[in-house]
Amino acid sequence: MKIQYLGTAAAEGIPAIFCDCETCRKSALAGGRNIRTRSQALIDDCLLVDFPADTYMHFLQYGVPMTKIKSCLLTHSHLDHLHTDDLAMRRDGFAHIRESFPLTFYSDVSGYELIRAAKERYNIADDTVAAELLALNEPFEVEGYKVVALRAAHDPKSTPVVFLIEKDGKTLFYSNDTSEYPEESMEYLKTLKKPLDLISLDCTEACNHATYIGHLSLERCIALRQTLLDIGAADKNTKFILNHFSHNGENVLYDDFVKIAAEYGFDVTYDGMVVEF
Ligand SMILES: [Zn+2]
Ligand SMILES: [Zn+2]
Ligand SMILES: [Zn+2]
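Above are the sequence and the zinc ion SMILES. Below is the predicted complex in C-alpha coordinate form.
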Protein backbone atom coordinates (compact mmCIF):
# COMPACT_ATOMS: atom_id res chain seq x y z
CA MET A 1 0.00 0.00 0.00
CA LYS A 2 1.12 3.53 -0.68
CA ILE A 3 0.02 6.68 1.11
CA GLN A 4 0.85 10.15 -0.11
CA TYR A 5 0.35 12.96 2.38
CA LEU A 6 -0.91 15.84 0.25
CA GLY A 7 -1.50 18.26 3.13
CA THR A 8 -0.29 17.91 6.72
CA ALA A 9 -1.46 20.99 8.66
CA ALA A 10 -4.31 21.82 10.99
CA ALA A 11 -6.97 24.33 9.93
CA GLU A 12 -4.73 27.42 9.66
CA GLY A 13 -1.95 25.88 7.57
CA ILE A 14 1.70 26.75 8.30
CA PRO A 15 2.29 29.60 7.77
CA ALA A 16 -1.26 30.63 8.66
CA ILE A 17 -2.86 33.08 6.27
CA PHE A 18 -3.31 36.03 8.66
CA CYS A 19 -0.65 35.17 11.23
CA ASP A 20 2.45 37.01 12.27
CA CYS A 21 3.71 34.57 14.92
CA GLU A 22 7.33 33.46 15.07
CA THR A 23 6.59 29.96 13.71
CA CYS A 24 4.72 31.34 10.71
CA ARG A 25 7.43 33.88 9.94
CA LYS A 26 10.17 31.23 10.25
CA SER A 27 8.30 28.68 8.13
CA ALA A 28 7.70 31.20 5.35
CA LEU A 29 11.41 32.06 5.34
CA ALA A 30 12.63 28.47 5.52
CA GLY A 31 10.17 27.16 2.90
CA GLY A 32 10.34 23.53 1.71
CA ARG A 33 8.98 20.99 4.19
CA ASN A 34 8.29 23.77 6.70
CA ILE A 35 5.29 24.83 4.61
CA ARG A 36 2.17 22.83 5.38
CA THR A 37 -1.25 22.95 3.70
CA ARG A 38 -4.53 21.60 5.06
CA SER A 39 -4.81 17.85 5.68
CA GLN A 40 -5.52 15.42 2.88
CA ALA A 41 -4.11 12.07 1.82
CA LEU A 42 -4.18 9.81 -1.23
CA ILE A 43 -3.94 6.04 -1.04
CA ASP A 44 -2.51 4.10 -3.99
CA ASP A 45 -3.37 7.04 -6.27
CA CYS A 46 -7.06 6.11 -6.10
CA LEU A 47 -8.62 6.58 -2.65
CA LEU A 48 -8.78 10.13 -1.34
CA VAL A 49 -9.04 11.00 2.35
CA ASP A 50 -10.64 14.39 3.06
CA PHE A 51 -11.49 17.29 0.78
CA PRO A 52 -10.08 20.60 2.09
CA ALA A 53 -9.92 23.90 0.21
CA ASP A 54 -6.31 22.98 -0.63
CA THR A 55 -7.52 20.05 -2.76
CA TYR A 56 -7.12 22.24 -5.83
CA MET A 57 -3.55 23.13 -4.88
CA HIS A 58 -2.74 19.47 -4.21
CA PHE A 59 -4.15 18.57 -7.62
CA LEU A 60 -1.82 21.14 -9.21
CA GLN A 61 1.23 20.37 -7.11
CA TYR A 62 1.18 16.57 -7.01
CA GLY A 63 -0.79 15.72 -10.15
CA VAL A 64 -3.60 14.08 -8.15
CA PRO A 65 -5.68 12.25 -10.80
CA MET A 66 -8.93 13.99 -9.78
CA THR A 67 -10.76 13.05 -12.99
CA LYS A 68 -10.28 9.35 -12.14
CA ILE A 69 -10.97 9.42 -8.40
CA LYS A 70 -14.30 7.86 -7.47
CA SER A 71 -14.13 7.69 -3.68
CA CYS A 72 -13.23 9.94 -0.78
CA LEU A 73 -13.27 9.03 2.91
CA LEU A 74 -14.13 11.96 5.18
CA THR A 75 -12.70 12.08 8.69
CA HIS A 76 -15.09 14.83 9.83
CA SER A 77 -16.76 18.04 8.72
CA HIS A 78 -14.34 20.73 9.94
CA LEU A 79 -13.43 23.19 7.22
CA ASP A 80 -9.81 22.05 6.99
CA HIS A 81 -11.12 18.61 5.97
CA LEU A 82 -14.25 19.38 3.97
CA HIS A 83 -14.78 22.33 1.65
CA THR A 84 -18.06 21.57 -0.07
CA ASP A 85 -18.19 24.61 -2.38
CA ASP A 86 -15.59 23.07 -4.72
CA LEU A 87 -18.01 20.20 -5.41
CA ALA A 88 -19.87 22.64 -7.66
CA MET A 89 -16.85 22.44 -9.99
CA ARG A 90 -17.79 18.86 -10.88
CA ARG A 91 -21.05 19.93 -12.52
CA ASP A 92 -21.62 19.78 -16.27
CA GLY A 93 -19.89 22.64 -18.02
CA PHE A 94 -17.59 23.30 -15.04
CA ALA A 95 -16.07 19.89 -15.71
CA HIS A 96 -16.10 17.92 -18.95
CA ILE A 97 -16.05 14.35 -17.74
CA ARG A 98 -15.37 11.54 -20.19
CA GLU A 99 -16.29 8.61 -18.00
CA SER A 100 -19.45 9.23 -16.02
CA PHE A 101 -19.45 8.23 -12.34
CA PRO A 102 -20.19 10.11 -9.13
CA LEU A 103 -17.43 11.15 -6.76
CA THR A 104 -18.71 9.36 -3.65
CA PHE A 105 -17.97 10.62 -0.13
CA TYR A 106 -18.09 8.22 2.82
CA SER A 107 -18.83 10.19 5.95
CA ASP A 108 -20.53 10.19 9.30
CA VAL A 109 -23.61 12.40 9.81
CA SER A 110 -22.19 15.93 9.82
CA GLY A 111 -20.11 15.66 6.63
CA TYR A 112 -22.90 13.65 4.99
CA GLU A 113 -25.40 16.44 5.68
CA LEU A 114 -23.02 19.17 4.49
CA ILE A 115 -22.51 17.35 1.20
CA ARG A 116 -26.22 16.87 0.73
CA ALA A 117 -26.78 20.56 1.47
CA ALA A 118 -24.10 21.55 -1.06
CA LYS A 119 -25.73 19.29 -3.67
CA GLU A 120 -29.01 21.06 -3.09
CA ARG A 121 -27.44 24.55 -3.01
CA TYR A 122 -25.61 24.03 -6.29
CA ASN A 123 -28.09 21.62 -7.85
CA ILE A 124 -25.47 18.87 -8.20
CA ALA A 125 -26.83 15.63 -9.67
CA ASP A 126 -26.54 12.21 -8.02
CA ASP A 127 -24.35 10.93 -10.85
CA THR A 128 -21.89 13.79 -10.16
CA VAL A 129 -21.46 13.75 -6.37
CA ALA A 130 -22.80 11.15 -3.97
CA ALA A 131 -22.75 10.79 -0.20
CA GLU A 132 -22.82 7.52 1.75
CA LEU A 133 -23.49 7.49 5.46
CA LEU A 134 -20.95 5.43 7.41
CA ALA A 135 -21.77 2.87 10.04
CA LEU A 136 -19.17 2.89 12.80
CA ASN A 137 -17.18 -0.19 13.85
CA GLU A 138 -18.39 -2.15 10.81
CA PRO A 139 -16.17 -3.07 7.87
CA PHE A 140 -17.32 -1.82 4.47
CA GLU A 141 -15.73 -2.01 1.03
CA VAL A 142 -14.47 0.93 -1.01
CA GLU A 143 -12.30 0.60 -4.11
CA GLY A 144 -11.26 -2.90 -3.05
CA TYR A 145 -10.20 -1.76 0.43
CA LYS A 146 -11.75 -3.03 3.63
CA VAL A 147 -12.41 0.12 5.65
CA VAL A 148 -13.59 0.54 9.23
CA ALA A 149 -14.52 3.92 10.71
CA LEU A 150 -14.02 4.33 14.45
CA ARG A 151 -15.26 7.22 16.56
CA ALA A 152 -12.55 9.85 17.21
CA ALA A 153 -12.25 12.05 20.31
CA HIS A 154 -12.77 15.45 18.68
CA ASP A 155 -15.51 18.10 18.35
CA PRO A 156 -18.65 15.89 18.42
CA LYS A 157 -20.55 18.32 16.16
CA SER A 158 -18.14 17.42 13.35
CA THR A 159 -18.95 13.65 13.80
CA PRO A 160 -15.26 12.73 13.73
CA VAL A 161 -13.92 9.31 12.75
CA VAL A 162 -10.56 7.68 12.18
CA PHE A 163 -10.08 4.96 9.57
CA LEU A 164 -8.60 1.47 9.42
CA ILE A 165 -7.83 0.84 5.74
CA GLU A 166 -6.83 -2.68 4.71
CA LYS A 167 -5.78 -4.33 1.45
CA ASP A 168 -3.51 -7.23 0.47
CA GLY A 169 -2.73 -8.04 4.10
CA LYS A 170 -1.56 -4.50 4.97
CA THR A 171 -3.46 -2.12 7.23
CA LEU A 172 -3.12 1.63 7.59
CA PHE A 173 -4.61 3.45 10.58
CA TYR A 174 -5.32 7.02 9.47
CA SER A 175 -5.90 8.82 12.73
CA ASN A 176 -5.90 12.57 13.10
CA ASP A 177 -8.18 15.14 14.64
CA THR A 178 -8.49 12.94 17.68
CA SER A 179 -7.02 12.68 21.14
CA GLU A 180 -6.89 9.37 23.03
CA TYR A 181 -9.64 7.19 21.55
CA PRO A 182 -13.04 6.74 23.17
CA GLU A 183 -13.75 3.40 24.84
CA GLU A 184 -15.83 1.99 21.94
CA SER A 185 -12.92 2.56 19.52
CA MET A 186 -10.40 1.07 21.96
CA GLU A 187 -12.60 -1.98 22.26
CA TYR A 188 -12.53 -2.41 18.47
CA LEU A 189 -8.74 -1.94 18.33
CA LYS A 190 -8.35 -4.68 20.94
CA THR A 191 -10.06 -7.15 18.59
CA LEU A 192 -7.65 -6.72 15.65
CA LYS A 193 -6.35 -10.07 14.40
CA LYS A 194 -2.86 -8.73 13.70
CA PRO A 195 -0.81 -5.61 14.48
CA LEU A 196 -1.28 -2.57 12.25
CA ASP A 197 1.40 -1.85 9.67
CA LEU A 198 1.31 1.95 9.65
CA ILE A 199 -0.23 4.22 12.27
CA SER A 200 -0.54 7.89 11.37
CA LEU A 201 -1.19 9.93 14.51
CA ASP A 202 -2.41 13.47 15.18
CA CYS A 203 0.41 15.62 16.59
CA THR A 204 -1.22 19.04 16.26
CA GLU A 205 0.50 20.42 19.33
CA ALA A 206 4.04 19.08 18.73
CA CYS A 207 6.00 19.72 21.96
CA ASN A 208 3.26 21.48 23.94
CA HIS A 209 2.22 19.93 27.27
CA ALA A 210 -1.51 20.10 26.69
CA THR A 211 -4.35 17.99 27.98
CA TYR A 212 -7.35 19.10 26.00
CA ILE A 213 -9.67 16.84 24.03
CA GLY A 214 -9.44 16.73 20.27
CA HIS A 215 -5.76 16.68 19.37
CA LEU A 216 -2.45 15.23 20.54
CA SER A 217 1.10 16.30 21.28
CA LEU A 218 4.38 14.37 21.06
CA GLU A 219 4.27 13.30 24.71
CA ARG A 220 0.70 12.07 24.35
CA CYS A 221 1.60 10.23 21.11
CA ILE A 222 4.38 8.46 23.03
CA ALA A 223 1.86 7.31 25.63
CA LEU A 224 -0.74 6.36 23.00
CA ARG A 225 1.85 4.31 21.09
CA GLN A 226 2.53 2.38 24.31
CA THR A 227 -1.20 1.77 24.77
CA LEU A 228 -1.52 0.48 21.19
CA LEU A 229 1.50 -1.80 21.75
CA ASP A 230 0.03 -3.04 25.04
CA ILE A 231 -3.30 -4.05 23.46
CA GLY A 232 -1.60 -5.75 20.48
CA ALA A 233 -2.80 -3.24 17.86
CA ALA A 234 0.87 -2.49 17.12
CA ASP A 235 4.18 -4.32 17.45
CA LYS A 236 7.86 -3.63 16.84
CA ASN A 237 7.33 -3.66 13.07
CA THR A 238 4.58 -1.02 13.13
CA LYS A 239 5.60 2.27 11.57
CA PHE A 240 4.43 5.33 13.54
CA ILE A 241 4.13 8.65 11.72
CA LEU A 242 3.14 12.00 13.23
CA ASN A 243 0.85 14.25 11.20
CA HIS A 244 -1.56 17.25 11.28
CA PHE A 245 0.39 20.19 12.78
CA SER A 246 -0.61 23.62 14.01
CA HIS A 247 1.53 26.75 14.12
CA ASN A 248 0.57 26.93 17.83
CA GLY A 249 2.64 23.82 18.59
CA GLU A 250 6.00 24.28 20.29
CA ASN A 251 9.03 23.36 18.10
CA VAL A 252 6.54 22.52 15.35
CA LEU A 253 8.67 23.71 12.43
CA TYR A 254 9.52 20.61 10.35
CA ASP A 255 13.28 21.18 10.45
CA ASP A 256 13.20 21.29 14.27
CA PHE A 257 10.49 18.75 14.99
CA VAL A 258 11.75 15.98 12.69
CA LYS A 259 14.90 15.66 14.84
CA ILE A 260 12.99 15.73 18.14
CA ALA A 261 10.45 13.13 16.96
CA ALA A 262 13.22 10.87 15.60
CA GLU A 263 14.69 10.61 19.12
CA TYR A 264 11.44 8.90 20.11
CA GLY A 265 11.20 6.69 17.01
CA PHE A 266 8.59 8.68 15.09
CA ASP A 267 8.65 9.82 11.49
CA VAL A 268 7.14 13.22 10.70
CA THR A 269 5.00 13.98 7.67
CA TYR A 270 5.57 16.77 5.18
CA ASP A 271 3.41 17.84 2.25
CA GLY A 272 3.95 15.48 -0.68
CA MET A 273 5.55 12.70 1.42
CA VAL A 274 5.05 9.19 0.05
CA VAL A 275 5.24 6.13 2.27
CA GLU A 276 5.07 2.59 0.87
CA PHE A 277 4.63 -0.33 3.18
ZN1 LIG B 1 -7.95 19.19 11.25
ZN1 LIG C 1 1.29 31.60 13.23
ZN1 LIG D 1 -11.03 18.98 13.19
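The CA atoms of residues 40 and 68 lie 17 Å apart.
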